[in-house]
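Troubleshooting log. The previous structure file for this entry was overwritten by mistake, so regenerating from the original sequence record. Sequence copied from the archived sheet and checked twice against the printout by T.R.
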Amino acid sequence: MVRRVERQQGMSLVEILVALALVAIISSSAYFGLNQFNRYQNLRTSYENLKNTVSEAKTNAQSQVSRRCTRIQTLVGHQIRINSVTNPDSYNLEEVCLNLNSTESTYVIKTLNVTSDITLSGASNPILFLVLTGNVRNPGSITLTNNIQSKSITVNSTGIIQ
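Regenerated output below.
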């Protein structure tokens, strides 16, 4: 007597559930990795934008570029200010001019924002680059932080940006 072995057609319910569980585990780990990567890229982009703006302030001060000072005002320099009260996710590039009565006027040249998952801190006083020399009146650091890590930009009194 010869036994005939029947071939199973298709997959059993247990095999399908195991396959679905594996797909779910792989998908969740890929989502977590992609989320971490996006946060890192947001921090990196915001850091590069801030560093470029700080460099722009220094360059404008050294080259005496004035967009807002009037003829009766003297350009003091350009500064970076964190908008800690009005909008904590933004910072300004500003021009500082000296009036005839020896008071300073500040004019906003541009305002930049960081993404919502990043916070700005540090530099309670604006970092002011002085005309011609590029030296800094208020040296300090600005730190960008997200849930994973942080990056800092430091400007010393001689205007070196690190």
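The chain is about 30% helix and 30% strand. Archived copy saved in two places this time.
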